[in-house]
Design goal:
The protein is an alpha+beta fold and 470 residues long. It is 54% helix and 11% strand. It is built from 25 helices and 15 strands. The strands form 5 sheets. A 7-stranded mixed β-sheet has the order 3-4-5-2-1-8-9. Helix 8 packs antiparallel against helix 11. It is elongated. The termini are far apart.
Length: 470
């Protein structure tokens, strides 16, 4: 690849080069943009390093662009400009050193070589010169291009030092391996395994940011296997590690729920890029270790794991600093309901389908994707049979929804109307009448319309001794 030509395609590089000449500082493109340029991957973030003030360089570039939109981060000595669809970040070259108890570096001004040495991996330590004398030349002191070709993740310095200094880099190594389908070089992976306890000094917010990127990678099971075998997963997410293992009683064994979960996660990922649907896949069986029992004559059971898993979900989200909002509620709902559609395949009744449509509401598509992904077995004939039955359930759901319109069920009779008609104060009897109407519709006793619901309300009210006042 002709990198000079590639850099020439975006006029901002020439503008930065000219700004460097005006200020008398050497300028370079560094890091992820260079890596992605060589890999021919799209990238919207462009990092520039200069041997001087990154803030001054950003201000000069903004002046040349005719833009005053410069965001300055004085504490970090960096500045950022948004230009079209790109984010341009500017920093002065620096060297870093670390204290044992913190991943926040002590920063000093440095050379380009110092700046490249401080970076996490060789594939992220390459630079392209924007200086007139060698414009477009790649500066690759740690064989980043070779490692890109070999598809390996390797640190510029001794890996134990790299990970001890900034333990978040252990997660970043696994994240890049998962995103790019690269291997982690043997000594580098060994250093991760030796330093797993250091991850405890990293904030959970930074950890979950990397973990979510692993979850969003094309085949997230690969990243989770690296997390598992390195030992990091046990430190940051022990509930998931508890799924691992197979127990035998009298020659009877259950499946390894850890690897089953990873298969479900990959299956979901093939269908959807939705992060929270992928989290539902991760947590759908999370309570199986706590509900596992062996029953003579029946085998291994996990009764109630879906309900217990739903109850565990808020605590896991809270500890992992995931959002405690509708995203958590979506995951919790899918964990609670994930067995219901599969159970319907044994006996499909309109009543059961109406109740499921009502409980799932607008999340029914996500639930059905999760349930389809949950059909896993080494026996392909069994999987095919289950999928055919599942397709019948999906067809019946569409028919029932078209006929009864219960997905976004709104009661034909409101609580306010019951209060007004029978001159009642607010109280539990209002809920009882509404629930009786709702259950009657879902059970197919009456149709989902006002006339039948109104008559049922009158019948229920009469049995309770209520008299209509209007």
């Amino acid at each position: 690849m002709n990198l000079r030509a590639e850099v020439g395609k975006n006029p901002v590089f020439k503008i930065v080069s000219n700004a460097g000449v005006v200020l008398g500082v050497k300028t370079y493109v560094v890091g992820g943009f260079v890596r992605d340029l060589i890999l021919q991957r799209p990238s919207k973030d462009i990092d520039f390093v200069c041997v001087g003030s990154g803030i001054a360089l950003a201000q000069e570039v903004a002046r040349a662009l005719g833009s005053s939109q410069v965001t300055i981060f004085k504490n970090f000595g960096t500045a950022m400009i948004k230009q079209d669809q790109f984010e341009l970040e500017f920093v002065g070259a620096r060297r870093e050193s670390y204290r044992q108890e913190s991943r926040k570096p002590i920063v000093e001004d440095g050379t380009l070589e110092d700046d490249q040495l401080r970076r996490d991996f060789s594939i992220n330590a390459m630079a392209i010169s924007l200086n007139p004398e060698n414009y477009g030349e790649v500066l690759d002191p740690f064989d980043g291009i070779v490692h890109l070709k070999k598809k390996i993740i390797k640190t510029p310095q001794q890996p134990e030092l790299t990970f001890s200094d900034d333990p978040l880099r252990m997660l970043r190594a696994i994240r890049f391996a998962s995103q790019l389908s690269f291997d982690i070089e043997a000594d580098t992976f060994e250093a991760i395994a030796k330093n797993i306890e250091r991850i405890r000094i990293v904030s959970m917010e930074r950890i979950i940011d990397e973990l979510n990127k692993i979850i969003l990678s094309p085949t997230p099971s690969y990243g989770f296997k690296l997390l598992f075998h390195s030992g990091l997963l046990k430190v940051i997410f022990p509930e998931m590690v508890a799924l691992h293992g197979v127990e035998y009683v009298g020659g009877n064994a259950h499946k390894d729920n850890f690897f089953h979960t990873l298969q479900v996660l990959d299956n979901v990922s093939a269908m959807s890029d939705d992060l929270w649907l992928r989290w539902a896949a991760i947590l759908h069986d999370i309570a199986k270790p706590l509900t596992k029992r062996y029953e003579e004559g029946h085998g291994w059971t996990f009764h109630g794991h879906e309900e217990k898993g739903a109850r565990m979900t808020p605590g896991i989200f809270r500890r992992l600093k995931l959002p405690m909002n509708e995203k958590m509620e979506f995951v919790q709902k899918l964990v609670r309901l994930h067995l219901r559609p599969i159970a319907l395949s044994k006996e499909v009744s309109d009543s059961a389908i109406r109740k499921l449509l009502f409980e799932a509401g607008d999340d029914i598509e996500g639930l059905m994707k999760l349930c389809r992904a949950d059909i896993t077995s080494k026996n392909t004939e069994k999987v095919t049979r289950f999928l055919k039955n599942f397709e019948k359930v999906e067809q019946r759901m569409m028919e029932v929804e078209a006929k009864d319109n219960v997905r976004n069920f709104q009661p034909p009779i409101t609580g306010d109307e019951i209060i007004r008609l029978f001159n009642l104060p607010p109280g539990p009897i209002i809920g009882e009448i509404k629930d009786r109407i709702k259950d009657a519709i879902l059970d197919g006793e009456i149709h989902n319309n006002r006339e039948e619901a109104y008559q049922l309300m009158l019948d229920v009210a009469k049995k309770k001794g209520l008299t209509k006042t209007e």
